[in-house]
C-alpha cells in the first residue's frame, strides 16, 4: 500500500500541506510474457493486417501465437522474461514495420532487442551454446562457447579473444601467430566459407565470391539469396516483413 505523509511548508506567510508518496516500485508496462506478446502482435499488425487482407483479430492472434512459441523456445533454453527490456523491443518493432521495404540495420536492432527480452543467466566466462544464453549485455562467443563482453573491432585491430567482433565486411584472420581483423574477399576473388569468407553482400560458390541470387532463383540456404530468405521449395523469395518468412502467411494470410 502506498504510504502518505503530510508535511508543512511555509510560503508567503501561508501554510501548504504537502503529500509525500512512498517509494513503491512502478508497475512494468508489460508485466508478463503474454502481455508483451499481445503488445508486440498489435504493433506488427497495425499496417500488415490491412496490407495482407487479414482481419485484425486473426493477425493479432497469429502473431501473438508466434511470439509465445518463441518465448517457449527461449524458456526451454533457460532464459527468463525481463519486463524492463520489453518496451525497447516494442519500439523497435514499430520502427522496422513502419517501412515497406526491409531495412537490414533496423531489422538487426529489432532482433537484438526482442531476443534480449528473454535473458540468459550465464555469467562472464561461463560456458554457453546459444547467442543469448548469457545475462545482461554479455554475448556468447559461439566459436569459443563462452560468455564474454562484446568488443567491437575495426580493420587491422588484433582479434581472437572471447567477445572480439570484427566490423562489417571484416573477419578475424591469423597473420603468423596473431589474428587481426581483415577485409573479406571481393567479387571474383577465391573464397572459403571459414578461412576466406566473401563480403557480406556476396556468396561463395565453393571457389569464388559471386553475387547473391535474386528472388525466384534456386538456393540452398538463406545466405545465398539477396533477400536473405531461401524458402521450403529452395527458391529465393523476397521478404516484405520482418517475420519468419517475411510474407503474409506469417500473419494469417495466404
In short:
This protein is an alpha+beta fold and 254 residues long. Helices cover 26% and strands 20% of the residues. It has helices at 33-51, 56-76, 83-97, 104-115, and strands at 4-11, 14-21, 80-81, 118-119, 139-141, 146-148, 151-153, 158-159, 164-166, 170-175, 178-183, 202-204, 209-211.
What features would you describe in this structure?
The chain has 254 residues and is an alpha+beta fold. It has a domain at 29-118. Helices cover 26% and strands 20% of the residues. The protein has 4 helices and 13 strands. It has a 3-stranded antiparallel β-sheet with strand order 8-11-10, with no helix packed on it. A two-stranded antiparallel sheet has the order 1-2. The radius of gyration is 24 Å and the shape is flat. The relative contact order is 0.10. The model is unreliable at 1-22 (pLDDT under 50).
Features:
254 residues; alpha+beta; 3-stranded antiparallel β-sheet; two-stranded antiparallel ribbon; 13 strands; disordered N terminus
Major sheet details:
3 strands, antiparallel
Instruction: Walk across the major sheet and give the strand order.
Output: 8-11-10
Low-pLDDT stretches are 1-22
- The rough form would be described as flat
How far apart, in Å, are the first and last alpha carbons?
51 Å
- Give the class from helix and strand content and strand pairing: alpha+beta
Helix content: 25-40%
SSE series:
EEHHEHHEEEEEEEEEE
Number of strands: 13
Amino acid at each position: 500500500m502506498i504510504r502518505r505523509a503530510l508535511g508543512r511548508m511555509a510560503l508567503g506567510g501561508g501554510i501548504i500541506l504537502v503529500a509525500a508518496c512512498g517509494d513503491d516500485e512502478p508497475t512494468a508496462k508489460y508485466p508478463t510474457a503474454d502481455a508483451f506478446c499481445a503488445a508486440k502482435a498489435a504493433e506488427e499488425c497495425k499496417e500488415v493486417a490491412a496490407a495482407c487482407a487479414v482481419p485484425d483479430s486473426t493477425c493479432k492472434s497469429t502473431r501473438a501465437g508466434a511470439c509465445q512459441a518463441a518465448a517457449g523456445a527461449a524458456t526451454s533454453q533457460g532464459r527468463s522474461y525481463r519486463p524492463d527490456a520489453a518496451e525497447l523491443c516494442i519500439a523497435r518493432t514499430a520502427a522496422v514495420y513502419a517501412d515497406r521495404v526491409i531495412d537490414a540495420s533496423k531489422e538487426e536492432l529489432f532482433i537484438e532487442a526482442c531476443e534480449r527480452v528473454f535473458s540468459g543467466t550465464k555469467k562472464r566466462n561461463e560456458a554457453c551454446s546459444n547467442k543469448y544464453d548469457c545475462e545482461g549485455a554479455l554475448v556468447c562467443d559461439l566459436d569459443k562457447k563462452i560468455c564474454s563482453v562484446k568488443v567491437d573491432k575495426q580493420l587491422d585491430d588484433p582479434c581472437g579473444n572471447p567477445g572480439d567482433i570484427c566490423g562489417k565486411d571484416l573477419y578475424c584472420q591469423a597473420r603468423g601467430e596473431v589474428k587481426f581483423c581483415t577485409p573479406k574477399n571481393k567479387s571474383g576473388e577465391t573464397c572459403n566459407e571459414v578461412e576466406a569468407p566473401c563480403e557480406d553482400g556476396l556468396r561463395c560458390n565453393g571457389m569464388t565470391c559471386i553475387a547473391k541470387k535474386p528472388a525466384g532463383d534456386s538456393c540452398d540456404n538463406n545466405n545465398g539469396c539477396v533477400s536473405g530468405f531461401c524458402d521450403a521449395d529452395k527458391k529465393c523469395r523476397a521478404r516484405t516483413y520482418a517475420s519468419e518468412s517475411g510474407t503474409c502467411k506469417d500473419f494469417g494470410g495466404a
